[in-house]
Write a structure and sequence with these properties.
The chain is mostly helical. Helix content is about 20%, strand content about 5%. The two termini are about 25 Å apart.
Length: about 90
């Protein structure tokens, strides 16, 4: 997993979310709201609120007897959160 490395990294996901609000076939906005929608209001990015999550995964941790129909073709990210004590 990769953490956000620069303030510009957040702009792409925010723009994609705004576009989804404008163009979704099942939008959370009615026609009039979409027509005037200028985008969601976001707080400015503040790097002091960032934290990096590390995940610990190992195929050996798989349940020893799952039936094959319970297997997933996607990774399930798991791990531990460790927070630094900033006093």
């Amino acid at each position: 997993m990769r953490g956000l490395s620069a303030p510009t990294d957040i702009q792409g996901p925010r723009a994609a979310k705004d576009e989804l609000f404008r163009r979704s076939p099942d939008p959370p906005l009615d026609h009039e709201q979409r027509h005037h929608f200028a985008g969601l209001r976001y707080y400015p990015e503040d790097p002091s609120f960032r934290f990096v999550l590390e995940r610990a995964y190992n195929d050996a941790w798989r349940c020893p007897l799952p039936p094959s129909e319970n297997w997933l073709d996607v990774d399930i990210p798991v791990g531990e959160k460790r927070f630094a004590d900033h006093g």
